[in-house]
Amino acid sequence: MFSIINIRVGFYLALRQIRRASLWTTGLIVFVMLLTFLNLVVVTGILVGLIEGINNSYRTEYTGDVILSALTTKNYIEDTPSVIAFVKSLPQVTMLTERYQTGGTIEANYLTRTSDTEKPNATSAQVIGIDPVAEDAFTGLASHVIEGHYLAEGDYDQILVGNYLLAQYAFGELPGLTPLKNVVPGTKVRLTINGAVREVVVKGFVKTKIDALAMSIFMPASELRTLMGRTDQNVMQIAIRLQPGSDPIAFKNLLLTSGIGEKAKVQTFADSIPNGVADIKKTFAMLGNGFSSIGLVVAAITIFIVIFINAITRRKFIGILKGIGISGEAIEISYIFQSLLYAALGSGIGLLVLYGFLVPTVAAHPIDFPFSDGILVAPIDGTAVRILLLVLTTVLAGYLPSRMIVRKNTLDSILGRN
Amino acid sequence: MIDVKNLVRTFKDGPIETRVLKGINFTATDGEFIAIMGRSGAGKSTLLYQISLLDEPTSGEIRISGKEAHLMSEHEKMLFRLSKFGYVFQDYALLPELTALENVTLPLFMQGSSLEEAEAKASAALQRVGLGTRLGNLPSQLSGGEQQRVSVSRAIAHKPSILFADEPTANLDRESSDRVIDIFKELHRNGQTIIMVTHEDEYARIAGRIVKLDDGRIISDSRV
């Protein structure tokens, strides 16, 4: 079928048919191809990007590239100063932040409660002690303050409260989590940690899509250490940011081989994300592929109809071509070339729109999903596979109808007989 | 060159069978100019389509240059039509999106010529019928007579053994018809075999031989 003569005659015919076809018709078909391409890439890209947004948030707002935390058998990272000194000495490290962490209770209506039977306006929370300056430099925590103000160095008895702990920002009362009511910046609350009680002022609210932080209270590390009764310098977490291009897995392995693993649990940002997130990512990718396949079928049917109508209205001319000795294969190839052109143009414009506009725009302005700042994930290899799928489908959808018409009796085609 | 024996062509439309050719026996030799005549429905175009291998006979034998054409595969017939035959249809049968030059170039290109070579031959064929200045025109930009001359050019550009013409002047005015017939006369003078279906006596008389059909049978075969 694909002899040189058939291919060159097919190309000769296709080129002239396309050149002299209606621009509107060609434009419409290419537009359908463009939409199909975007549907193939963007639907999956957004679904996967929604979860990738969670990963990115964890990495930028919480864990950094690699995070060290207390071993499960300990309440702190042993010999923290030497661990920090070692980590800082490594050339891959650009910055780090240290955190203390403990459980606590926060109560808001302790001043107005009139009897012991009245339900306290209180909730349990994770209390994180931070160096406000280092933490903001590392995670940009200050930018997440939606009411009130961020902590300053030297703040005394002041806290930030995560949005899930506040009735006005929480999704509702979850089991085991009763958000605080009637709390605004400036409200005095009672913080209890390990039996130690202190009255503190809510300086601001932090809104974040990372559950672990949204259900936390932030206060200066020096204050939390006092409340915890700690006199040593051992912290609970050290989040580490690496030089761009550094491999977190390789760095994790370096720390483990250096013996850090005996003092702290060493995890990359990906390790620290709950397992379910990876499963959801796979599920969403499958869903995206499912939706995209429907788009692919629609595109195939569109091309089939377009080529079928084109071929059937040109049946007489196809008959003439066969009559004067042009092979059926050459005629079929001419339709394959036309389909290829539509798919190539649609994909080409789609690539420009995708990588020239959509990906950078969504990266700069992530989609505000309730639990993630979604980005558009469109890896080159995945996109190439989808282009290949689109081209193959289009070629098949162009070939089949042309074959149906070409196979009809030559004279019947010329005379328009059925 | 062409030898037809007991050629039968029956058309079926559901249970109804119509026998259009009822056992035709016919021979054409090289260099002849044959006019096939007959009233409407006599079977003259059907006979032309059978011997030019555009259609399959229901039964009978067709030998062309000693080859059993009725036994050929569709691919062999296609190659035969491409290399040995030329066709001129009543309605010109030009491809609307190809220019005059491209319409004539296409079969030459299919035969294996390079594009330049095919275009040169096509250009020469078009000049031969007086269309040297209309090479780049689309069929829609040509008159009926000009389109038929493009069709003739396409049919003769590859120097076919036999030129088949199905009522080539039926859609043309007098002047254009004369011009087409003049081209046929000249081709015949140069040894071209031509088999032409026509219903016009005047043009039929130009052929050296007139075969008349009626009701699917040859009723006369005479030399002029």
TrEMBL record, chain A:
<dbReference type="Pfam" id="PF02687">
    <property type="entry name" value="FtsX"/>
</dbReference>
<feature type="transmembrane region" description="Helical">
    <location>
        <begin position="290"/>
        <end position="312"/>
    </location>
</feature>
<feature type="transmembrane region" description="Helical">
    <location>
        <begin position="340"/>
        <end position="363"/>
    </location>
</feature>
<feature type="domain" description="ABC3 transporter permease C-terminal">
    <location>
        <begin position="291"/>
        <end position="409"/>
    </location>
</feature>
<feature type="transmembrane region" description="Helical">
    <location>
        <begin position="383"/>
        <end position="400"/>
    </location>
</feature>
<feature type="transmembrane region" description="Helical">
    <location>
        <begin position="21"/>
        <end position="51"/>
    </location>
</feature>
<keyword id="KW-0472">Membrane</keyword>
<dbReference type="GO" id="GO:0098797">
    <property type="term" value="C:plasma membrane protein complex"/>
</dbReference>
<keyword id="KW-1133">Transmembrane helix</keyword>
<dbReference type="InterPro" id="IPR025857">
    <property type="entry name" value="MacB_PCD"/>
</dbReference>
<protein>
    <submittedName>
        <fullName>Uncharacterized protein</fullName>
    </submittedName>
</protein>
<dbReference type="GO" id="GO:0044874">
    <property type="term" value="P:lipoprotein localization to outer membrane"/>
</dbReference>
<comment type="similarity">
    <text>Belongs to the ABC-4 integral membrane protein family. LolC/E subfamily.</text>
</comment>
<dbReference type="Pfam" id="PF12704">
    <property type="entry name" value="MacB_PCD"/>
</dbReference>
<keyword id="KW-0812">Transmembrane</keyword>
<dbReference type="InterPro" id="IPR003838">
    <property type="entry name" value="ABC3_permease_C"/>
</dbReference>
<feature type="domain" description="MacB-like periplasmic core">
    <location>
        <begin position="46"/>
        <end position="253"/>
    </location>
</feature>
<keyword id="KW-1003">Cell membrane</keyword>
<dbReference type="InterPro" id="IPR051447">
    <property type="entry name" value="Lipoprotein-release_system"/>
</dbReference>
TrEMBL record, chain B:
<feature type="domain" description="ABC transporter">
    <location>
        <begin position="2"/>
        <end position="224"/>
    </location>
</feature>
<dbReference type="InterPro" id="IPR017871">
    <property type="entry name" value="ABC_transporter-like_CS"/>
</dbReference>
<dbReference type="Pfam" id="PF00005">
    <property type="entry name" value="ABC_tran"/>
</dbReference>
<dbReference type="GO" id="GO:0005524">
    <property type="term" value="F:ATP binding"/>
</dbReference>
<comment type="similarity">
    <text>Belongs to the ABC transporter superfamily.</text>
</comment>
<dbReference type="InterPro" id="IPR017911">
    <property type="entry name" value="MacB-like_ATP-bd"/>
</dbReference>
<keyword id="KW-0067">ATP-binding</keyword>
<keyword id="KW-0547">Nucleotide-binding</keyword>
<dbReference type="InterPro" id="IPR003593">
    <property type="entry name" value="AAA+_ATPase"/>
</dbReference>
<dbReference type="InterPro" id="IPR027417">
    <property type="entry name" value="P-loop_NTPase"/>
</dbReference>
<dbReference type="GO" id="GO:0022857">
    <property type="term" value="F:transmembrane transporter activity"/>
</dbReference>
<protein>
    <submittedName>
        <fullName>ABC transporter</fullName>
    </submittedName>
</protein>
<keyword id="KW-0813">Transport</keyword>
<dbReference type="GO" id="GO:0016887">
    <property type="term" value="F:ATP hydrolysis activity"/>
</dbReference>
<dbReference type="GO" id="GO:0098796">
    <property type="term" value="C:membrane protein complex"/>
</dbReference>
<dbReference type="InterPro" id="IPR003439">
    <property type="entry name" value="ABC_transporter-like_ATP-bd"/>
</dbReference>
